[in-house]
Amino acid sequence: MATVIIPTPLRKFTNNTARLNIQADTIEKTVSELTFNFPELKKHLLDEKGQIRSFVNIFVGNDDIRNLQQEKTEVKADTVISIVPAIAGGVQ
How would CATH label the architecture of 2-85? Predict the structure, then answer.
């Protein structure tokens, strides 16, 4: 199973779980499984069309899925997936 690392701001929607093991063969299926098991995550990860939100970065290992096959990126049993929501704010 692939390991999904949940960022601190989203852990309140996964029962404070930092790492989850997901059985899926693509990022799309991984996100689907996550949002099925943790419905509150859906609005934070997906837009109204069911697409990954533009400000949510997902990495397979060290590679951004935008530089791979996006949602169709392959996931293997030893894959580590990181979800990194963009952080806005601060002083300019």
Answer: Roll (3.10)
